[in-house]
Specification:
Blueprint (H helix, E strand, L loop, with lengths): L2 H20 L4 H19 L12 H16 L3 H7 L5 H13 L20 H4 L2 H9 L2
Length: 138
């Protein structure tokens, strides 16, 4: 097993333990949020930042996760998120704060779960027309 495989295996174990403690979200939802966070930070701030500068708000993350879901799953984005029990931006916040509590992510004193409340309406944000529009803009 390579170092990369070992690290991935350790992350998978951490995610399984986290998912078992943190609620109804499967490990794939945590992995999606982690990958979406990295993608959102890269897009918002660039690639050459120190770890301290790689911070975004809860609102920015929710919007970035919406874009990432559409990019990755297209017209099925809503279906995939629902299969993970993710129905509102509050669910993104629960996943993020569970990862913070597990030491997988960090936060600033200004960060709050409230930053994730009602950022957008899932039905509207993932409506067929919105999805098609977003996919055509790429």
């Amino acid at each position: 097993m390579t170092t990369e495989q070992t690290q991935k295996s350790n992350v998978d174990m951490d995610l399984k333990q986290l998912a078992a403690k943190a609620g109804p979200y499967p490990t794939t939802a945590y992995r999606f949020v982690s990958e979406g966070l990295s993608r959102t930070v890269e897009r918002a701030q660039g690639l050459d930042l120190s770890e301290a500068d790689r911070h975004i708000s809860g609102q920015q993350l929710c919007i970035g996760l919406r874009e990432f879901a559409i990019e990755r799953y297209g017209l099925l984005a809503s279906v995939v998120l629902q299969s993970w029990h993710v129905h509102r931006t509050d669910d993104f916040g629960r996943i993020v704060f569970a990862m913070i509590d597990a030491g997988m992510l960090s936060k600033t004193p200004q960060d709050s779960f409230d930053d994730f409340r009602g950022v957008f309406d899932f039905q509207e944000a993932f409506s067929r027309d919105r999805l098609i529009n977003a996919m055509h803009q790429r």
